[in-house]
Amino acid sequence: MSSRPNEPERSEEKSGEETTELSLFDKFRDNIEAFVVAVILAVFVRHFAVEAFEIPTGSMAPTLFGMHVRVESPNTGHTFEVGIRSDSATGTLLIAPETYVVCAEDCPNEHCSLKLHARTSSGGLLGSYGNRSSSSSLAESAIARAPDRIPIRCESCREQWETGRDSLKVTQATLRTLRCPLSGHRWEQVIETSAVTGGNKILVNKFAYDLGKPERWDVIVFAFDQWKNYIKRLVGLPGEKINLLEGDLYVNGKIERKPNHPYIQEVLWKKRSDSSIREGGLSQVEAWKEPEGTGSGAWEKLTDGRWSLNSSKSSEPALLEYQRGLDNYIPYNSLSGRTRGGHAVGDIKLSFTVTPSTPGGWIGAEVRDGNWTFQLRLPTGKSSPGRLAVIERMENEPRPDVKNPRKLRFPQPSLFMERDDVELELNVKSRIDLVNCDDCLVVRINSKEIFSLQEAEGYISVLDVDNPPPPTPHSAYYLWILGSRVDANVEAIELYQDNYYTTDHGKHGKAGIQLGENEFFALGDNSPSSSDGRVWGHVPGNNLLGKALLVFWPAWPWNYQGRFIR
């Protein structure tokens, strides 16, 4: 009798065990189903919606990176990417690293921040031990036998000091002379193979051209042969005639203006100077300098990077000149040998902040781009009938009797635009942008456009693409900041240069190309180091795989590169 009351309890316990077993099975089944569905969705998405690609080379740098290292300039602290050549099919590095003993110690010079050194002041110990199988052992033995104090020489600033064995290490590396993109300073960099980062990993929208047509400046992915896919920027559409002249893109005989596509233009600008970044004084050439001559001394460089202009009591226009040259240098190509910047670049954006303190004068800038010279004058204080905001285009034929560049004036201006409702407010910061790009000159104050000069106003550099003018020499380019009868502070001077499409290689770059029906033309953003349409011509429309969408890797906190691709 006593067992009967327990039977329902045993029965309930058994039922509970069965319920538990079914619950575990359900969870296992749910996980399997979720995994299968995820795989199916992944396969579906990969083949029909988006697909991941890894960028194998640096042909689209700096928009997209192939295998690269991140380098810090010891003069400015500015970091930039340098491409590492690799086999696009296998990812194998195409450099020959050697075993080095290096000093891993900050340079003691407070104005230099180089952290790896491969030279001694007296020779020996530091440097290469070759790439033999025994080279690492030889390097370790050399460190073990090293004296207590080892002489070190910095290959950035030439500082010499002594250090102990604890600062030495063995590494696989190569040495290269690099150039800071902002200051022009050159130094010897130890590039370790352990610092190499793989190419950007991107997602490609494979539906993009099923739902819409390809547009100029899209970053496209396409199949070029049976072995690999390519990624380039689309610049030519079906039926168009494409020419590349003086670094610019011409479509059907007319220049294609990127300023009409502001997002694309922002991507393609390359910063060349920034007065807000404190330099260590290692560069041989200052970015901005007042030329010597009559009336000089109006500009004074302050310790915080600003410039003080004092010309309110002088009738001489005060001139501040950019000194470091305007060429198509791309720091990403430092290991490929294509970094000399052999082409002069006149397409620039100059931005600076000015705070005038006296009325009655003007502040502006002057840029010479080949056969074109433009001068901007903005009145300080209230404008008046005789003091208007002016943009003036002048012929490049200076009077031979004028010796002082501040008095340099040209014959009758061939273009003159003015406004009576624009002035620089006193004791207030104003941001000025002077953009000269693709035969288009734009002036903005605090992001508001006040002047725009284009083809309708006669700005045409090449009249006939089939008979272009001879190449323009480097001497035909300059950039000035000007001020007259005014006291002011000028700061945050930034200079950008436009992407320059070279024609150094490939028959289609020099001669141009006529596109047929359903044919496209694509170029790499890294023009000096890109195998693209200049070499192999058009891309058949049937080969287009999709539009590059976003970079999703690297995404480490210390090396975050995630972004949408423009």
Describe what this molecule looks like in 3D.
This protein is mainly beta and 566 residues long. The protein is 13% helix and 35% strand. It contains six helices and 38 strands. The strands form eight sheets. Strands 1, 11, 12, 13, 33, 34, 35 and 38 form an eight-stranded antiparallel β-sheet that branches. Strands 17, 19, 20, 22, 27, 28, 29 and 31 form an eight-stranded antiparallel β-sheet that branches. A seven-stranded antiparallel β-sheet has the order 18-21-30-23-24-25-26, with no helix packed on it. The protein is globular and about 80 Å long. It starts with 5 loop residues before the first helix and ends with a strand. The N terminus is likely disordered.
Please outline what is shown here.
This protein is mainly beta.
SSE topology:
Layout (H helix, E strand, L loop, with lengths): L5 H43 L1 E5 L13 E5 L6 E5 L14 E7 L11 E2 L9 E2 L6 H10 L5 E4 L6 E4 L4 E12 L6 E7 L8 E5 L2 H4 L7 E5 L5 E8 L4 E5 L2 E4 L2 E2 L6 H7 L1 E5 L13 E2 L9 E3 L5 E4 L7 E5 L25 E9 L5 E8 L2 E8 L9 E6 L20 E5 L10 E7 L4 E5 L2 E6 L23 E8 L2 E11 L9 H5 L1 E2 L4 E5 L9 H4 L2 E2 L3 E10 L1 E2 L2 E2 L2 E2 L2
Antiparallel strand pairs: 1-11, 2-3, 4-5, 4-6, 4-9, 7-8, 9-10, 11-35, 12-13, 12-35, 13-33, 14-15, 14-32, 15-16, 17-31, 18-21, 19-20, 20-31, 21-30, 22-27, 22-31, 23-24, 23-30, 24-25, 25-26, 27-28, 28-29, 33-34, 35-38, 36-37
